[in-house]
Design a protein that fits this description.
The chain has a domain at 108-157. Helices cover 48% and strands 13% of the residues. It has 6 helices and 6 strands. α6 (188-203) links the parallel β5 (180-185) and β6. α1 packs antiparallel against α6, α2 (75-85) packs antiparallel against α3 (87-98) and α4 runs antiparallel to α5 (129-157). The radius of gyration is 18 Å and the shape is globular.
Length: 229
């Protein structure tokens, strides 16, 4: 469970230099049809992410590896994929790769596609409880295999004492090994986004409002928030 932001007494960053470290960033998406106010809050969120990451890397070490949800190619091929997929992530990742970080192929393409397909099926709804249960079971199996692959990709590429930058959705459910220190980069703008989405949903309960996920994020290993490091 993540420690409350700004309420934890943190040891000096130097104490983490000998450990493997993951800087965890939650993905927030937007699109052209989203309300201007939401887009402004997204811009603010990613601006604060950039500031907090720079501060964290200055104290605990620059990210040598980058892992991004839905990226199944390494290096330049992965960057091209990311550039088409998510502008904000690309603007965070590209400068670090220019400075020597490696964008890793975090995903298995087929496994990621299977999880996405089952998610779409689950959103459709079913008349048969039996079919619904079958789809949920198949989704759970695929999701577990996908996460096992992701953690294997991180575990085998992140060396002793190295730092990695991981960008995933809030509901990732990844279980980090005990020897990996996890720093959750959670700027104040994320809470603002969550509140805005909730407020819009309460005002217009019959309309969908684009916004970040609000699911709790379980993990093992030491997980810390980083605003005041």
């Amino acid at each position: 469970m993540s420690e409350p932001l700004g309420r934890v007494e943190r040891p000096a960053a130097d104490t983490f230099h000998s450990r493997r470290k993951i800087y965890l960033v939650f993905l927030v998406f937007t699109h052209e049809s989203a309300p201007p106010e939401y887009n402004e809050k997204c811009e603010k969120y990613w601006r604060q992410i950039g500031e907090q990451l720079a501060n964290l890397e200055a104290k605990a070490g620059s990210a040598a590896h980058v892992y991004h949800e839905a990226v199944y190619e390494q290096g330049e091929a992965g960057l091209l994929l990311l550039q088409k997929m998510h502008r904000f992530s690309y603007e965070i990742v590209a400068p670090r790769c220019t400075n020597g970080a490696v964008l890793e192929a975090m995903e298995d393409r087929e496994l990621a596609a299977e999880v996405g397909d089952w998610e779409r099926f689950m959103m459709m709804g079913y008349s048969s409880a039996k079919v619904g249960e079958l789809v949920r079971d198949l989704y759970t199996q695929a999701f577990k295999k996908r996460n096992e692959h992701v953690m294997s990709a991180i575990d085998t590429t992140l060396g002793p004492g190295e730092s990695g930058l991981l960008l995933v959705g809030e509901g990732h459910r990844l279980q980090f090994p005990a020897d990996m220190e996890v720093f959750s980069v959670v700027p104040p703008a994320l809470d603002e986004l969550h509140r805005w989405v909730r407020d819009q949903a309460n005002r217009r309960p019959d309309e969908d409002v684009a916004g970040p996920a609000t699911e709790d994020v379980p993990s093992s290993g030491g997980e810390r928030n980083t605003e005041d490091m």
